[in-house]
Design a protein that fits this description.
The structure is a single chain. The protein is mainly alpha-helical. The protein contains 21 helices and 5 strands. It has a 5-stranded mixed β-sheet, covered by helices on one side. Helix 7 (about 130-150) runs parallel beside helix 9 (about 165-185) and helix 13 (about 250-260) runs parallel beside helix 16 (about 315-335). The chain is globular, with a radius of gyration of 25 Å. The protein starts with a helix and ends in a 7-residue tail after the last strand.
Length: about 500
C-alpha cells in the first residue's frame, strides 16, 4: 500500500509542478525548429535554404519528428513541449520497471523514484523545447531493454537513442559490448541470434544513416561538435560536474556510505562472494562506468555552450540513480540480517535515512524555485527581445536580405525567415572550421552585406560583448549601419540586452 501511495504521489506532484511551470522555450530550441521547418517546407535539412548545407543541430531525431508534425499543421513549440513532458513521465515509468527488474525493495524503489522525479532540472528540460528529456527517456528505455535481454527490442531502442543525440552512440557501444559479453559467457546458445539482431537492426541502419549524413554534410561529426571542442582543458567543467552530482545525489551517497560503515564486514564479504550481485547488473555497472568516464573526459575538453540547468550532465543522472538504488538495496539487505541483534543501531539508521530523504526533498524544492525563476526570465527575454526582433524583421525586411546574429541565433533567425550568418558558429561551417584569422572573421561579417545585424550586449549604455564585437562596430564599413533599436533585458537581475542595427538604405522601411 505504501509503495502504490508513494508512486501515485510522485506522479501527482510531478503533474502539479509541470502544470505550474512557466511556459517557455530555450533560444537554442528554435535552431531545431528552423531545421524542421526547412525540412517540412523545402525538403532540405539545413540552416539556409539554397546555400551550402550545414548540420547545426545535435541530434537528427527531434527535427525530423517536428518536421512530420509541421506537415500536419502543428506548432513545433507546442509539439516539442508535449514531447518533453511526455518523455519525462515515460522516463519515470522506465525507471520503475528497471528497479523491478533488478528486484529492488518496493519501498526503496518508491523513495528513489520520488527523489529522482523531483530533481529540479528535469522539469526545466521537460519544458525547454530541446531534446534533453527525450534523450534521457531513450536512455531509460535502452537500459530497460538491456535488462530484458530481448535483442529485437534492445537494438531498436539503441538505434532510436543514437539518433536522438550523438552521446547515444557512445552509450550504445558500451551497452552492446556489455550485452555481447553477457550472451557469450552466460547464454552462448543465443549469441549468434544476438549478433544477427545487432547487424540487421542496429549496425546496418546506423551505417546507412551515417553514410548518408557524411555524404550530405561532408563532415564526420555534427558542426556543433567542432564549435564546442577546441582542444583546451576545462578544469572548471569537472568541478562544476562534481558539485552538481553531489547536490543531486547527496541522499543516496551518504545513505550508501552509512550502510557500508554500519556493516562493513557483511558488506565486504557479500561483495567478495558476489552474493546478491546479479551478473546482468555487473555488466550494466561496467558499461555505465565506461560511458561516464568517456563523458567526463569529453567534458574536460569541451567548451560547454548553453549548459543551463546542467544540460550536459543530466545523462549521468539515470545511471547513477540506478546504481545508487541497487547498492542501497544491497546494503539494506545486509543490515536487516542483524536488526534483531542490534535493534537500536538499525533504528538509528532508519531515522538517519528518513532525515536524508527529507533533506534531499527540501533541497530539490528550494532549487525548483530557482529553476522556475530561470524559466520565467528566459520566457520574458524570448518574448520581449528575440521573438520581437525576429517578427519585426519578418514584417519589414525584404526576404532577399541577409541577417547576422551575434551571438544568439535561435528565435531571431527563426521568426525573421531571413538567411542568416550565425556568429555563434553552430550553424556556420566557415566560422566553425575555417580557421579564420581575427581580420578574416571581421571581413566575413560584412561579406554578405547583411540588411540587419543583431548583437547581444552586456551593457545597455553601449554595445559591449567582447573584443571582436568592438572591432566590428569600429570598422569603417559598419558606418553603413544604423542602430535602429535597443531591446533591454526585461529583468534587472540579468544584463543581457539586444541591439538591432539596420543597413542605412533599409531604415526607411521601418
Amino acid at each position: 500500500m505504501t509503495y502504490k501511495f508513494i508512486i501515485s504521489f510522485v506522479f501527482f506532484c510531478a503533474a502539479l509542478v509541470l502544470a505550474s511551470f512557466p511556459e517557455w522555450t530555450i533560444d537554442d530550441a528554435f535552431i531545431y525548429y528552423r531545421y524542421a521547418e526547412n525540412l517540412a517546407n523545402h525538403g532540405v535539412l539545413t540552416w539556409n535554404v539554397g546555400e551550402s548545407v550545414v548540420e547545426g543541430y545535435t541530434g537528427v531525431a527531434l527535427p525530423v519528428i517536428l518536421a512530420g508534425f509541421l506537415k500536419l499543421g502543428f506548432s513545433p513549440v507546442e509539439v516539442s513541449r508535449f514531447l518533453g513532458i511526455g518523455a519525462y513521465f515515460l522516463s519515470l515509468v522506465f525507471l520503475l520497471l528497471i528497479f523491478r527488474k533488478l528486484k529492488i525493495n518496493s519501498n526503496i524503489s518508491a523513495i528513489a523514484l520520488f527523489l529522482y522525479a523531483s530533481i529540479p532540472v528535469l522539469f526545466t528540460h521537460a519544458t525547454s523545447g530541446l531534446d534533453t528529456m527525450l534523450f534521457l527517456t531513450a536512455m531509460m528505455g535502452s537500459i530497460y531493454a538491456f535488462f530484458l535481454m530481448r535483442p529485437l527490442l534492445f537494438f531498436s531502442a539503441l538505434l532510436f537513442m543514437s539518433l536522438v543525440r550523438p552521446e547515444g552512440v557512445v552509450f550504445s557501444a558500451c551497452l552492446i559490448g556489455a550485452s555481447a559479453y553477457y550472451f557469450y559467457v552466460y547464454n552462448r546458445v543465443k549469441f549468434k541470434e544476438f549478433l544477427l539482431a545487432f547487424v540487421l537492426i542496429y549496425f546496418v541502419p546506423a551505417l546507412v544513416y551515417f553514410l548518408w549524413r557524411w555524404n550530405y554534410y561532408g563532415q564526420f561529426l555534427p558542426n556543433t561538435f567542432y564549435v564546442k571542442t577546441d582542444g583546451q582543458f576545462y578544469l572548471n567543467n569537472l568541478l562544476d560536474l562534481a558539485r552538481y552530482l553531489r547536490s543531486a545525489l547527496i541522499a543516496p551517497l551518504i545513505l550508501t556510505l552509512l550502510i557500508m560503515l554500519a556493516e562493513a564486514d557483511i558488506w565486504w564479504n557479500k561483495i567478495k562472494k558476489q552474493e546478491g550481485l546479479e551478473n546482468i547488473f555487473k555488466m550494466f555497472f561496467v558499461a555505465s562506468a565506461v560511458f561516464a568516464l568517456i563523458l567526463i573526459i569529453l567534458f574536460s575538453r569541451t567548451h560547454l555552450v548553453m549548459n543551463y540547468a546542467a544540460r550536459f550532465y543530466v545523462p549521468l543522472l539515470p545511471l547513477m540513480w540506478i546504481v545508487a538504488a541497487y547498492f542501497v538495496n544491497f546494503g539494506w539487505l545486509s543490515i536487516e540480517k542483524t536488526k534483531l541483534e542490534k535493534p537500536l543501531r538499525f533504528k538509528w539508521i532508519k531515522i538517519l535515512a528518513v532525515i536524508l530523504v527529507v533533506y534531499q526533498a527540501a533541497f530539490n524544492l528550494t532549487k525548483l524555485k530557482e529553476e522556475k525563476v530561470f524559466a520565467q526570465n528566459e520566457a520574458a527575454m524570448q518574448k520581449e527581445q528575440h521573438t520581437a526582433i525576429g517578427k519585426l524583421l519578418r514584417e519589414k525586411m525584404p526576404n532577399s536580405e541577409w541577417l547576422v546574429s551575434y551571438i544568439d541565433a535561435g528565435a531571431i533567425p527563426y521568426f525573421s525567415k531571413l538567411k542568416n550568418v550565425d556568429f555563434g558558429a553552430l550553424n556556420d561551417i566557415v566560422l566553425s572550421r575555417g580557421k579564420l584569422s581575427p581580420e578574416k572573421r571581421v571581413d566575413y561579417f560584412f561579406a554578405k552585406n547583411p540588411g540587419a545585424a543583431v548583437f547581444t550586449g552586456t551593457s545597455l549604455e553601449k554595445l559591449d560583448y567582447g573584443k571582436e564585437a568592438a572591432v566590428i562596430i569600429a570598422d569603417a564599413r559598419f558606418k553603413n549601419y544604423v542602430l535602429l533599436k535597443k531591446y533591454p533585458s526585461p529583468t534587472t537581475s540579468i544584463n543581457y540586452h539586444e541591439f538591432l542595427y539596420v543597413r542605412k538604405d533599409l531604415v526607411k522601411l521601418f
